[in-house]
Records
---
Amino acid sequence: MSFNIAIAGKGGVGKTSLTGMLIEYLVEQGLGPILAVDADANANLNEVLGEEVDLSIGEIKEEINKAEVAGVPLPIGVTKADFMQLRLNQAVAESNGYDLLVMGRGQGAGCYCYVNGLLKTQLDVLAKNYQYLIVDNEAGMEHLSRGTLGKIDLLILVSDCSRRGIQAVGRIRDLVAELKLKVPTIKLIVNRAPDGVLNAGTSEEIEKEGLDLIGVVPMDQNVFEFDSYGKPLVDLPADSPAKAALRAIVDKLEIIKNKK
């Protein structure tokens, strides 16, 4: 059975950057197989990982919708469900030490309910084939409230140093309790802290929210430079402050030891 890790928090706090560095570290430790999932309609985990994505779940949905509108027949003897599953399997991109699945989005107006449903169905099918399932969630709480992720063994809440960010992850933690989701471990990472140190106001808010802080990732000029030039963050030097801090946090979480 896979060990399922979900990363959540409000937008713009660096969830995807940390997710990419987490995946890289697990691959370096020789662990796997790993399924990395970008569950954000505005997908960019592949950019952090330095991967090209040829097909997303949202694109499959659009492809099948357009074929139905145009009256394009399916191959003889193939049902719509079988064809959908075939295309979903093709959306799993194989990489070096992990596979990548991207939710993406359909075109035009409308909610993402159907695409979310397809993602949930595909995760239910695929999860049993992997040691780790690592899901980079979209900003907010939708995937948790919809039960898209199914079983969650570790929920990593990511915030910046702002009170709004801490309050946002506090609400996510509260939603887990309200939905009676059985998540055995919920930890907080504060990202982009100046000099890697929390000020008194941030620390006070964390204590007020009753969050379990596992570590702090410092603001890193290297991350800014790589993002500015579109370089994959997995190519950051090993001594980059953000990368070093994230790896130390992963070691404290003991998820590597638990799977060996």
---
Amino acid sequence: MTHIPPQQWMIEQHQLGHSLCLILDSEDERQTRQVLLDAQDPDQYCSVYSETPVADMADAGPFMFLIDNPEDGQLDELLKAPERNWGWLASVPPEAGLQALVKHWRERLIVGTRPHQALYRFHDNRVLTRALKHLATGAIAGYLGPIISVCYWQGQHWETLSNPAPGNHPVPESPAWCEVPVESDQSAHIREVNARRYLLAEHLDAYARIAEQQDPDLWLSTQLTLADTWGWQAPEQLEFLLIQSLKEPEGKLAERWKARPDETPTAHFERVYQATKFWQEDVPL
């Protein structure tokens, strides 16, 4: 890894004949995205979530843009504000182009198995930073795929890294990047994003009723805080908590849900789970 200003990195990669790509977290950069969309031809950008199982979230998902001229100032605003964590930059072979990069990340987009699947936030420079920090050299090629080099803000300075073997690599059965430790604050953010997406995808009507009664983001945050308080960290525990909360008046759980003194998280969950099954007459959750 080396420290090179992004402008210099882009110029060097361009001079080497590589194509430059911006991976943009457009959910928080809609204005920048629109400026780029207005300035480029349709074959120079792509919504990653489109044509995938999460196509309904394409507008809030990441976009990729080809950057033809690294010196035209198109990205100046982004490069001056890396603390906004807007994404990262990559270079790819011209013959691979944008579509190869999009295909690569679409194949790695959804991790886990149903009903505990989650979206991998590859477009977040913080996620990329942790992955590249923890992955063994042999796993980097499968992670970066056709990418020749990446340039990203790692929290304190710009970092660049060359891919040891750019190309088309299959997704491993157990991807090493899914085992990378997650910092607590980022883990909480990812969990909240995935919980919201799960509710919108699987329980839209019930979640919409909550939104009619109160701030849905505050409600979700409250449920996640409750899960932390009770030590319910497993996906099935959180899923159970969210679903049952949606069924309660105003989304608030009854007193019987509270943990008893000296009750372990596992015992607490099992007690409430069995009681709920009994009162709901074993109706599947």
---
Amino acid sequence: MKAIVIGAGIGGMSAAIALEKAGFDTTVFEAVKEMKPVGAAISIWPNGVKCLNALGMKASLRVLGGNMAYMAYNDAHSGHTLTRFSMTPLVQQVGEYPYPVARAELQAMLIDTYGRSRISFGKRVTQVEQTEQGVTAWFDDGSQAEGDFLIAADGAHSVIRHYVLGESVERRYAGYVNWNGLVTIDETIAPADQWTTFVGEGKRVSLMPVSGNRFYFFFDVPLPKGLPEDRSTLKNDLKGYFSGWADPVQRLIESLNPQTTNRVEIHDIEPFSRFVKGRVALLGDAAHSTTPDIGQGGCAAMEDAVVLAQTLAAHSLGIEDALLRYEARRVDRTKDLVLKARKRCDVTHAKDAEVTAAWYADLKNETGERVLAGMIETIEGGPFG
């Protein structure tokens, strides 16, 4: 059995590795000629960590992950800690650590595990067709590939999604802009073993430790789409949006290199319930593009990969039957993650100012139990509990 995998991002590579471990042959095709991951880093929560463990990358991941032992929220203007708590109860409950990692390093780990030389780069899919016997994919260079089934992990702007759904779906602007990057750890800004978030005015500034003595940072600001902002205006933009914020935030802004800081308008896609058409299945952002507000986008793609391989390996009524069983196991789970992220997005970014003000007030009395309970519920919904 041969699988065509479209996309060499987190979802596509996880799927290819999982399928090969389950005994399938795979070929991977990637549109770009060189992988340049979008975004500086990613938080891999224990549900995603367990998926990578199961795919044989337990030791490799630990080398890349930062030590996120604590979590804290700080007041935007005074810098005072609103709440701080240990992540240990979460780890003990779910049986694994969270690992913030640099996205480029995660991508390289996945590609190296699969075999970089086996991936066909510069292959942008233009159409797919299928028969009762298999699937053919055509690429913009005129070439084609044939397999028994096809996994479309071609991202939020998926070409193949339209083929599966029979219609186009619009990306929904979530209402805020995110700036992100990597900086050397500076403990005058935040502790080296803590996920630190400054909150106020419907905005946030957050820092997570990754390997190599670095912080992954991001700034969020509710803004209209399409503003004329770029790297040339970046520091002045952030200084304006965060005027009056605490000294650590100002030091972080001063430390930034605009050339390595990303600016992203955040979108998601309304959840839909069809991931499969015959021998073609959507996976990752192609199936369930989400905002990053609960850090589950990459983890959900890893879950897809594991469940896909499990389902194909465990059933013998044919490829189409097994892919529909994959769909059945993933539709409700991923819809829940997208909508949870959207709800958290709205609270964090002051869609309703009164709701957000109440959240800020509640943080002053937060012991960590409620925050961790929500995370644990999300994590335990994954394929490994």
---
Amino acid sequence: MKKVYPIIGALLLSASTLAKDDVPWFESNTPLTQAHKHLLNGDLPAMFSSLVEVWQLDKNQSIAPHLNALFLQSLEVDCGKSLDTKPFPNWLNSVVVIRSDIQSPGRDAYRAIIEVEADKTIKDITLSKWVTRNLSTDSSLNTVALSDNVTKYVKRYNLNSRMQMGLYRIDVTAADQSSWSSWLVLGDPKAKVSVRWQSKDQWKVERNALLNPHCPLPKLEASLYDFIDGKYNRVWSQSYESDYPNELNQNVIEPGRYVLAVSMNHARWQGPIIVEQSQIISKTYDVSLDE
């Protein structure tokens, strides 16, 4: 824990300015001070529980950056694996939450996606922002059969703006009325690796900060989509965890006009939940007969 002390010290100093009547903040017993104490003591589940309570009770957005810094510091320990020790129920295999920022010529789009793998038939999946605010009325729920017993359910929300930091709630309801729910805290991290277009046919990977050694390596994915019968269909895809390329080998696909999407994905955990931040850039891409 020694390596986290300098940043925690700065957080403690800023927290002391939040105390009232000049009472030393360590002598108070608010959820915020408890979150700091638990982080100092290495009790990440208790720290996370206190942080959820702060987000539930606090109405002053001025401390949101402080809460974000505190949360991001907790991820330096083990990338969020210890924030929640409660396992999934036996019928729920995995939960992945993805925030996507999509940049295409002349338009930016935002999505929230929840992927659930389950042994039971799932009736509904919802993601809402505290307090009980629906993300969007533009949503869909699709299924993919992975095996005879396991199905992947994908709930997709099309958003008007980027998902903000703060407290969210995930609810999964099965057809037999079994249910599972969890609080989800989203921070506002700055992407440590990002991607942008460098020329007509090339992109550039930019490294903006040191990576958290406890988190998976950022994954770059390049995909080609064909537009058929009013829908985009992925016809090719390749992912990379290192030695990121900056262009596409055109020999992988037949000549024609496609949409090329390049994404940079950062992943962490919140206990058993996987949380991903995805930056996607896309543009029209021509593969000529001469190549």
